[in-house]
Write a structure and sequence with these properties.
By secondary structure, the chain is α+β, with helices and mostly antiparallel strands. The protein contains 5 helices and 7 strands. The protein has a 4-stranded antiparallel beta sheet with strand order 1-2-3-4, sandwiched between helices. The longest helix has 13 residues.
Amino acid sequence: MEVTLREVRDADLPVLFAQMNDPEGIRMAAFTAEDPSDSARFEAHWARIRTDPDVITRTVVGADGDIVGHAGVFGPPEEREVTYWIGRQHWGRGAATATLRTLLGIAPERPLHARAAADNVGSVRVLEKCGFVVTGRERDYANGRGEEVDELLFTLRY
């Protein structure tokens, strides 16, 4: 799937909010906000990260102009972490892989880190295809599932 990454616009936020409230997306991501349906908290979070010069955040746009999701890089220099969220209607078509590859070109610093629920096979596969390797494993409470979940830690060194 062909995607482009662009600056997040105010008009994107309702679409991103809806995508991040999809029950299946929440289950797959597992490590979500405590209450993804809290629109005030969502708005405050996005207002903060969009003005933080240390955070890269982009809207993912498909070839047809539809908003596919969002992606970003955040954290201090040696702990920079990638994140992405793809709307369910775009799953299984290569959007996440295309998004992460494009994001890696925007954020050339290394190392970069990532996390994924161990049973989120799709996200694990995307990270591995983009050169990330598993460097650890944790078990943490996942708001999106209401229980502790195994999480894989990834690193991209080059």
